[in-house]
Amino acid sequence: MEAIPGGAEQAALRAALAEAAAEIEQALDALLPPPEGAEARLLEAMRYAAMGGGKRLRGFLVLEGARQFGVARASALRVAAAIEMVHAYSLVHDDLPAMDDDDLRRGKPTCHKAFDEATAILAGDALQAHAFTVLAEEDTHADPAVRAELVRCLSRAAGPRGMCGGQMLDMLAEESAAPLDEAAIGRLQLLKTGKLIEFAAEAGAILGKAPGPLRHALAAYGRELGAAFQIADDLLDATATAEETGKRTGKDAGAGKATLVGLLGLERARAQAERLAEQARRHLDALGERADLLRALAAYAIHRRN
């Protein structure tokens, strides 16, 4: 099926993204412990890192995937909040002096700047642990097998063959005298960014106990979307201002990071992102018109300015 054309499609998507972001913010507020007791500083840092900004793209993917299969919104929101906690933890650690050493994130001081490095490390650790607590609780889904599958898949996406492994590859690439080729950069970005986005797209199908082919289609959509999204991020780092993105730009080139933009140049990288977005959209054919917002998201992901 064809998606809603042009401006109407993007207007519908923007409204849906804003609504989802507000709902996810409310879910995070309810699920993150309030800052009280002797450990209040840690809890405050967790909430500072996870709330009050961000596109909530991963959470939106969970909600839209779940909507395809009639999953209760409250259940989907818990999973969306959990993946946003994991994403927030990764950003807190990525911003540390030992990693990318950034002082601005989502238009405000990074967690280690607002608090201190030790508190930021603990806040990231606690956000990751709390995300799995949320997934494992019965309120997320009545079926323990579904909860176990969510835990298994998110831990795999975030672990040594996922986000953490990708971050390691990224750090090793900075130290290497030989530049990475296109295949090596693609694998780095698949692990560092793509695996979490792939899980976010697949999570709704897990919640809905969807047939295997549809679950695989959403996972494949997320995989292509994640690759396109990362190229778009690299393009923004090369072309956007800090005011547009809410974070420091130009850092990839300055740090000698391995990116497809650096390897291919701006125009070829843009063309590659367009191809990936189109491939992502094709994976949704079996879902018909109800997946139009997911199709629109593929276009948004590569044309955004923040």
Fold-level CATH name: Farnesyl Diphosphate Synthase
End-to-end CA span = 29 Å
Could you give me the name of the CATH homologous superfamily?
Farnesyl Diphosphate Synthase
Provide the low-confidence segments as ranges: 1-5
Shape: globular
Q: Topology as H/E string?
A: HHHHEEHHHHHHHHHHH
What is the average of the pLDDT values?
91
CA gyration radius, whole angstroms? 18 Å
Strand order of the largest sheet: 1-2
Going by helix content, strand content and strand pairing, the class is mainly alpha
**Number of helical stretches of at least 4 residues:** 15
Report the biggest beta sheet as strand number plus sense, adding barrel if it closes.
2 strands, antiparallel
Any overview of this molecule?
It is a single chain. With 306 residues, this protein is an all-alpha fold. The chain has one domain (6-303): Farnesyl Diphosphate Synthase (Orthogonal Bundle). It has helices spanning 6-31, 40-50, 57-67, 73-94, 111-114, 117-136, 144-158, 163-175, 182-207, 212-239, 242-245, 251-255, 260-264, 266-282, 292-303, and strands spanning 104-105, 108-109. A two-stranded antiparallel ribbon has the order 1-2. Strand 1 (104-105) and strand 2 form a beta hairpin. Helix 1 packs across helix 3, helix 3 (57-67) crosses helix 9 and helix 7 (144-158) packs antiparallel against helix 9. The longest helix is centred in the C-terminal third of the chain and has 28 residues, at 212-239. The protein is globular.
